[in-house]
Amino acid sequence: MAQLVKLVDYVSRYEHDLSRYPTQYIRLKKYQWERMKTQWENGPELTEWQQEGIEAVEEPEEGKWFAPLFRLFGQRKTVIDEEVPEVDHEENEEQDHFGFSPNIVYNPKNIEQLRKLYLDQLFHFQIKWASSTLMDKSRVDPRYMRDSLLRSFAQYLPDNYLLFYYPILKLKKAPVELDIIMVTPVECMCITVLEAEDISAFVGSGDRFWVKKSGEKETKLLNPLIALNRNEKIVTGVLNGQEIDFPVKKYLISRNGYIDYPSAPFDVTIIDRRSYEKWFSALQKLSVPLKSTQFKAAQAILDIGHTTSMSRFFEEDEEQQREEDNES
């Protein structure tokens, strides 16, 4: 599963230590899958599976403002200790609040169903990591939970892909919205997506507007290469500013439509309905491990990321005030 490093302008756990969390994520994901598979193979009672997932974590008598953190991300400390035995006390304490413990909430009939159940829960965990830290939290738009492209990238691409999903960057003190950026071990992919009705056709040209054909209907849309070229220029500038030598490539993709542009620029890879599955399958097969230059490139982008969030403690005060208002 690709690692969701940055989701729009949400606060991200990766912002704090990009060198640590990718490897921690990989270890945690592998450990929890083996644990869940072992439970399923041994066939314990469903009630026992559910009970393990909802087992309460004892809240401290002092510092009760930590309570919502335990409720949201509580996990038994022994699980994390087994998974990452070499980490220090501070890291263990942090993982207690943000651990991932998947539950078997129904009885899968085969290993494929079990894996789907696991990946669905892991996807929600990824969203949490990409929208919260121990101290801060961003409000997640529910549409991202239903975003099929985001889910596809996050669930089916390798762990060594670092995904920036429509990140907002701070350039000259102004927030700038970008399209998708995927930092792989071998290149930085700038991706612009054309999504419309199934089997729509996009007729490209060097003009400011393209034509979208859907049945007998024709409409104009802004040339998507304008945004794609802008994104590539920004990312290249960020990397050059940090003297990071890492290739930046441009991709225009459409999962459900056709792109007709015979004279497309040579530096743009066009992927449409006819070639998307083959292209995606090739991405899945990249077995190159995480690279130091890849980390540097991703960190350079993260460093200028725009973040909108609120303190967890402020949010708790708001909830307490609402409860008091309702009681009065």
Explain this structure to me?
This protein is of the alpha/beta class. The chain is 42% helix and 18% strand. It has a 6-stranded mixed beta sheet, sandwiched between helices. About 16% of the residues have low confidence.
Taken in chain order, the helices and strands follow as EHHHHHHEHEEEEEEEEHEEEHHEH
Oligomeric composition of the shown chains: single chain
Mean pLDDT: 81
Which residues sit in consecutive blocks of at least 5 with pLDDT less than 50?
45-97
Rounded to the nearest angstrom, the distance between the terminal CA atoms is 48 Å
Into which percentage range does the β-strand content fall? 15-25%
Task: State the helical fraction.
Answer: 40-55%
User: What's the total count of β strands?
Assistant: 14
Please outline the major beta sheet: 6 strands, mixed
So how many helices? 11
- What shape does the CA trace take? globular
- Helix-strand category: alpha/beta
How is the largest sheet built, in terms of strand order? 1-3-6-7-11-13
> What is the radius of gyration computed over CA atoms, rounded to a whole number of angstroms?
22 Å
